[in-house]
Specification:
Blueprint (H helix, E strand, L loop, with lengths): L23 E6 L8 H11 L4 E6 L9 H8 L3 E5 L10 H8 L3 E6 L1 H9 L5 H7 L5 E5 L9 H11 L4 E3 L3 E3 L9 E3 L3 H17 L10 H9 L2
Parallel strand pairs: 1-2, 1-4, 2-3, 4-5, 5-6
Antiparallel strand pairs: 7-8
Helix pairs in contact: 1-2, 3-5, 4-6
């Protein structure tokens, strides 16, 4: 079990709802105990942004803490909840649909494992492949077990993701470990703070072409690949 108890269970002040200038948001929830709060946050998103279309994706491990039905009930007609898998008989590519549909992606909470897979470029689920294949902001808010933040492996993956122009990393804060009962786990901040960071980065990418410029242009990259 990763993550822990969030720093506060209080509802955010409705007057402090941050701006969010998009119409379509993809929310990926991984298997931290903090995922148990996602029905609350799904309803907060729906009430705070009535015009926002939301798709939520649950990883396999997230289903230990929250159900697809619990989230769908909070979204009502404002969105859709799906599992992070390719249905056996689906005629279309789910990762392509997600990448083309989303105007922003929030991974909340992101487990140690999910963050590592994202940093390593693994693409064994629709949400991961969509994150790799989109230029929109991808906000990653980790929830970590005791010792997770100090791990050299985690710090290496964090540095890798920090180098990606469209990735926004949200530092976790202290939380109570459900295993030890001590304040030695790490939890993501409240979702409004994450949304605020998302909007800031979205605006930067929109107004500054240099902010999203890759190290090599697509044309030069393809040319390099074609060389014998």
């Amino acid at each position: 079990m990763t993550g822990g108890i969030p720093r506060t269970g209080e509802a955010p002040n409705p007057m402090e709802v941050p701006a969010l200038n998009i119409e379509r948001l993809l929310v990926v929830t991984a298997g931290s105990a903090a995922a148990a709060m996602m029905p609350y946050w799904a309803e907060w998103l729906r009430l705070s942004y009535p015009e926002l279309d939301i798709k939520m994706v649950l990883t396999h491990s997230a289903q230990r803490f929250v159900t697809q039905q619990a989230l769908a009930g909070r979204l009502h007609r404002n969105g859709e909840v799906m599992l992070d898998e390719w249905p056996e008989h689906e005629a279309t590519a789910r990762h392509v649909e997600l990448a083309e549909w989303a105007q922003a992606v929030v991974v909340y909470p992101a487990t140690f494992h999910f963050l590592a897979r994202l940093a390593l470029g693994l693409a064994d689920s629709p949400s991961l492949l969509a994150c790799h294949c989109t230029a929109v902001p991808v906000v990653v808010a980790p929830a970590l077990p005791p010792g997770g933040l100090e791990s050299t492996v985690f710090q290496s993956h964090w540095a890798t993701l920090a180098a990606r122009p469209n990735v926004v990393l949200v530092p976790p804060g202290p939380g109570v470990s459900l295993t030890t009962g001590r304040s030695e786990a790490w939890v993501p901040p409240l979702l409004p703070e994450v949304i605020s960071l998302l909007e800031r980065r979205r605006a930067e990418l929109e107004t500054s072409p240099a902010a999203r410029r890759p190290l090599t242009t697509p044309a030069s990259f393809v040319t390099d690949l074609a060389r014998p």
